[in-house]
Amino acid sequence: MDRTARRAPRPTGGTIAYDPSRTALPLHLRAAAVLEAGWTGSSTVPSRSLYPHQWSWDSAFIAIGLRHLSPLRAQTELETLLAAQWADGRIPHIVFNPSVPLDAYFPSPDFWRSATAGRAAGAPRTVQTSGIVQPPVHALAAWLVHLADPGLSRARGFLTRAYPRLAAWHRYLLHRRDLGGGGLVSVVHPWEQGMDNSPCWDRPLSRVTPAPARSFRRADLDHGSPEGRPTDLDYGRYVRLAADYRDRGYADGPGDFMVEDPAFNALLITSEYALARIAHELGAAGSARRTRAERLTAALVERLWDPAAGMFLCRDVRAGELVPERGVAGLVPLLLPTLPRDLAATLVRTVCGPHFGLGGSTRLVPSYDLLGEAFDPHRYWRGPAWFNTSWLLERGLRLQGERGRADALRRGILHTAGASGFAEYVDPYTAQACGATGFGWTAALTLDLLHDRPAWDKNGVTATKGEDRL
């Protein structure tokens, strides 16, 4: 841990209130205050107002940043999430805090009914959760958290306890979610992929009959502008998909929405490499996981690469075709160490070209094609730039040897995070803050980038001190 990390305030259990107006404070202190304000004692909420529970991939990103403040709290963050794992291996996308009123967030626990509807799939009885999943960033997060303080991790048996749960999580995805039969994981709801209302979902979602508007109440509109949130039509389709999945007892199989997503699968591959490192740390062989990661990379290229688009596209499994929309998810495979070099070079040209404009018209990577018909710079995942995807692409550019571009993106992320009050997302052209401010993963990934940038090895998972500094 470097000097900046040692000077950062030690968490004290939620006593520091985040104030976005305190811009005179150093950036790392402001980011630490955001995470302190969101700490519940066992995990961190993404946003006290908009997202008052624990979210799966949010917690993974938050743990990556928390490790620079308190490795113990970062371990606890992941352990709390893993404790809510279902017996079939799935890690639910929400772990509900029972002290939060039911009407504070929809869909609430009484919608998901995990303890009853999920009984056959092994939902936990002691905690309420959702029944869908989110991208598998968790093994990568666990490995990076371990590296922050290996002595503490070993003394607490952190990896020893986490590894079987992470292995079961990957096993669930690889065995239960290969709905297309080509080796890749399918998502069965847009919320699972994390980029909720991306235009990439419009075509497969069009088959879904929306739930009647009177059958649910959107709590998100109490805290955000309707112009920046999914439409009522899209939300009705989300509710219908989730209710149908629940009513099937959360059993996996063919359905109206089945999509192979490049980002979800690229993050699974990255976490397979991390699991190989964890296995080695625990004295086991990791070669089978590295081989699996290479095989999954080949499947990703075979099934989702589109030469004409110059990037990876989503595959609509039910229709048996690629979805002709360029979303940021199709750039995330830059993270993969065995990605063919010509494809990596093409991805770099695409991210810096007119469709995403990085280094030209944009400082952060937009979530959707700047030239696409559905582009909207302010509406949730239909154009705004998000900090977690830009963090992933900064890492991917660096792994592919694009140090100059990675450095520029890193500077853009840090400047925009501070100037926007750690916004949930921003206008890709103007960097105007959108959504919630004081957002958990924005603050956490800011902290990660403020520390010495690691030199990632050929597998993209181990870290040593590098020379990059703010």
Automatic annotation (TrEMBL):
Domain Mannosylglycerate hydrolase MGH1-like glycoside hydrolase: 51-442
Pfam families, per database record: MGH1-like_GH
InterPro entries: 6-hairpin_glycosidase_sf, 6hp_glycosidase-like_sf, Glycoside_hydrolase_63, MGH1-like_GH
GO molecular function: hydrolase activity, acting on glycosyl bonds
Keywords on record: Glycosidase, Hydrolase
SUPFAM superfamilies: Six-hairpin glycosidases
Record keyword Zinc-finger present: no
Coiled coil: none
Family designation: Belongs to the glycosyl hydrolase 63 family.
Protein name from the UniProt record: Trehalase family glycosidase
Source organism (scientific name): Streptomyces venetus
Lineage: Bacteria, Bacillati, Actinomycetota, Actinomycetes, Kitasatosporales
